Amino acid sequence: MALKSQSPKLQKASALFVLAGVLLYACGGANDSGSAATAPAPAPNDPAVPSPAPPASAATPAQPPAAPPATPAEPPSTPPTAWSNGVAPSSTVIYEGPPIQVSPQLVGIHWTQFTSSYGGPQHGPRLDQHFKVNAFRVFGTYNLYWNKTEVSPGVFDFSEWAKARKFWSDNGVKFVTLNLHGVPGFYQTRGETEVGQWSMQLPKSKEAVWGWLTAVTNYAPEIKQIEVANEVWTADNNAGSNPSRDYWGDTNANLRTLMDWVLDWRKTHRPDIRIQAPSVPGYSAHINGLFTDLLDTYARTCEFDSFSAHGYGSASETLHKTTNTALPTMQQKVSAKCGPGKKIRDGEHGFWGNSTVDAATVYNTVVRGALMGLDGIDFFEVGSVGNDESNLGLTAGGWPNASVLSGFEDGAVLAGKWITKVTTGQGGRWSVEGYTGGAPATAAPPATPAPPAGPPATALSWTACAREYGSCTFEGRREVRYAGVPDGSRVITKVAESPLVCNDKSFGAAPTNFESVCHYSSQTTTAPVTTAPQ
Known about the structure:
9-stranded parallel β-sheet
């Protein structure tokens, strides 16, 4: 969040809200009413990985597309249903080629003062207003801060989170990114010497971080991704070396420690949750600095699932150009370092105050992001009636501007679809054509005679062991299932021995733009190891 361009009034409001007190609740007593309780922080080796649902309805969280923009994903083998957005096409082609599968969390929103939500142009929508989008980023979201939820070690109050969950449910939000901002005072290691009260620091202990992450993700299953830190490399300084100019108010070494703690939490507690690397503003200097100063020298960089830059000031004609935003640079750097399959997200997006923003501006920017293969775009909703970096066509009469709102909501309809052609269209909006649905066809297995009656079989259960590109480890020889998310429509089973790389190649699977998760059976088997999907 680039607060340097906000009004002084908004910066003061930010500081006041961050200094507000924390409330009461417990890890183990979470419920939608947000009532308070107490619970100890989880032990470092607590294997609190939730049991997965049967693969046919895989209850693993929604994940984004994996294919880089230069290599569009293969279309489904089953003939899908033709689809268009209803805008009359023109002869000016923006894209025509192999189907590109759109991320299921394409359109996200991010605004401050979320659950306090005064309404009006300065503060985004009220909780009772509709806003049908795919995703939500929790950062600068005052009443959802860590320090407003955990009042003392192990004591939480999720009453404000209950409001947020209702809003997400009412508006179809199924993918929430949580930024680790707002360390409670009793976990702080240094004073809050920050820019606009936005910077972060390393808490006192790993157990404090793990306790918060476990409690909040257990309470709010919509959280599918943790972002380690916000804009850690800004201006022309290294991360942490000049806290007066960046939003990481601690040392570079401590940032690496925090990254270790979060990655270790995912590994030991929640392998189903994505981890996003610290974000940066979307300019080449920032992204080059992030990699040179941090990610190129951090041994675990490629354990991150997602990387984020903030594409303020760019629109449909510039989002993909390195002269305007460095999102393409980030795509190239991540692919070169970690290979394909990592996600790139525009984690904060707004338009400059001197620009004209309408529904077509928003919609076409969303389409451009889909064509680039972005995981999604989180639009920053706080704006001062169109005079700063968050200009989204807000009006003095209150939020929302109906025409701009339609750009978001119509863009969200693209999520999960396949795009084959885009033209400039007529009337401002781009014309989009492609397909919907179309899960790969799988023939039903031939019927086999029922086995002789015998003692009741022990019920099988399945344990999540790795996300795509991870390593699945278990004892003995077992069946392992490779299930696509979010809907589990593609499930491949093979007999394997540990360790097994959880990826398309291991299971002989055709590439898709959705991530998969591996689960191993609770029972060992004497069946031979298979090298092809069963």
